[in-house]
Amino acid sequence: MSALSDVDPEVFAAVKHEEHRQQTVLEMIPSENYASAAVLEAVGSVLTNKYAEGYPGARYYNGNEFVDDVEDLARDRAKALFGVDHANVQPHSGTQANMAVYLGLINPGDTVMGLKLDAGGHLTHGSPVSASGKLYHFVSYGVDRESHLVDYDEMLSLAKEHRPKIIVVGATAYPRLWDFKRAREIADEVGAILMADMAHIAGLVAGGAHPSPVGLAQIMTTSTHKTLRGPRGGMVLCDEPYRRQIDSGVFPGSQGGPMMHVIAGKAVMLKEAATDAFKAHAHQVVANAQALAKTLLDAGIPLISGGTDNHLVLIDVRPMGINGRQAADALEAAGVVVNSNPIPFDTLPPRQGGGIRFGTPAITSRGMTEPEMQRIGELMARVLNAPNDEGVRAAAKREVEELCAKHPAPGVPANA
Ligand SMILES: *Cc1c(COP(=O)(O)O)cnc(C)c1O
Questions:
Q1: Which of 10, 54, 258, 389 is the most buried (most CB within 10 A)?
Q2: Which of 132, 169, 197, 219 has most ligand 1 atoms within 8 Å of CB, for mutation?
Q3: Which atom from ligand 1 is nearest to the alpha carbon of 173?
Q4: Using one digit for the tens of pLDDT, what is the confidence trace for 379-403?
Q5: Residue 121: what pLDDT?
């Protein structure tokens, strides 16, 4: 970091402060994690200097011998890890991966189905403020009002009525398993392609801790920095017949030159994710989320859908007399970082949110297990039940700092 501190002390200082923050809080936003030191090194490499528009063996510029090696490694490892025919590792983010699929497979104005935003769907599943919702005609299915589970009967009847070209399954805030088989049957019944957006759960799928959509969805998209613990980015995985359309949807459809330094980080992540240690980690993420859910339920805090099958928990905070943003702020004052989130059939505007969403990927990467989950669940419940009590927050924060000191965040320098 000495070059950075010499050239730009202001940016250097912000990075150092962020390292300290990451080491000393419980990072429980379920889409965040710690990339390993090896991933960070690859992303910080001179590969950022290289233009490589095109694909390995078919580039527009010269001098691609070594970046071709990197992209081939990333693609081959992604194919082997998930058991798919083809992988495109160039999308700059999960959002870009989803947009590339739409651009490659369908035309503007075509009908697509996705999960409603307040039921846990992502902005790229047809929100009117996203390009997805502006360019395509999205029809949204939801969850059941009582069980909070995806309503596949509604998905089927809407599919029959609107004849979508693509049905998107997958979510950003859904604590339960998807029935990919049922979704494929619905897609087949109306001649739609099934696209599984596994941005949140890809690491669990890779580690065998969540059922895989492979073989059921023809197209899969993911981000690479969530449960997969890679660099910030995206990927598309698909069956052979869709390879050309997907590749052209990414480049030249929606992106220019690929970020070869990030693709190198993805290759390293994909190697790490194929290990037995990662499999054990993925199972521990789910076991931890379930232990946390149980502790909260025992403390009298009701959970959306009553529990969790994956890495995340969603709670309705309106009964505590606060909104999601106030709950997230109270927890942050106690050193627990979560995010406010809409909940099914929410009555509050999205920027406040009636709930909070949190999960165990990052704290599990720190090596925490069930006993820590119980302590964390108890301290979260104390803060949520007294959101304006500064004494409660301060006591919780001391406990959080002690837990963090015992379980250093991997890949994050301990410079403080
Ligand atoms: C996070 C997420 C994305 C988008 O990923 P970005 O990398 O933030 O663009 C897409 N879909 C789902 C379901 C997500 O959770």
A1: 258
A2: 197
A3: 15
A4: 999 999 998 999 999 999 999 999 9
A5: 95
Residue 414 is predicted with a pLDDT of: 84
Which ligand 1 atom is the nearest neighbour of the CA of 121? 13
Q: Which atom of ligand 1 is nearest to the CA of 198?
A: 13
Residue 416 has pLDDT above 60, yes or no: no
Q: How far is the CA of 86 from the centre of ligand 1 (A)?
A: 20
Q: Which residues of 354-368 are buried (b: 16+ CB within 10 A; e: fewer)?
A: bbbbbbbbbbbbbeb
What's the whole-number mean pLDDT along residues 312-338? 96
Q: What's the 133 CA to ligand 1 centre distance in angstroms?
A: 15
Cα 415 to ligand 1 centre (Å):
31
How many whole angstroms from 16 Cα to the centroid of ligand 1?
27
Decide if pLDDT at 9 tops 70.
yes
Q: Across the strands, what pairs with 237?
A: 87, 220
Q: How many percent of the chain have pLDDT more than 90?
A: 96
Query: Which residue has a Cα nearest atom 3 of ligand 1?
Result: 94
The three-state secondary structure class of 296 is helix
Whole-Å CA distances, 373 to 294, 359, 376: 10, 11, 5
Question: What confidence tens digit (pLDDT) does each residue in 336-375 have?
Answer: 999 999 999 998 887 889 999 999 999 999 999 999 999 9
User: Domains along the chain?
Assistant: 40-273 (3.40.640.10), 276-406 (3.90.1150.10)
**Ligand 1 centroid, distance to 212 Cα (angstroms):** 18
**Average pLDDT over the chain, rounded to whole?**
97
Q: How confident is the model at residue 1 (pLDDT cuts 50, 70, 90)?
A: low
* Helices 9-24 + 390-406 axis angle, to 10: 100
Instruction: Give the helix ranges, DSSP H, for 229-388.
Output: 243-250, 260-272, 276-298, 324-333, 361-365, 370-385
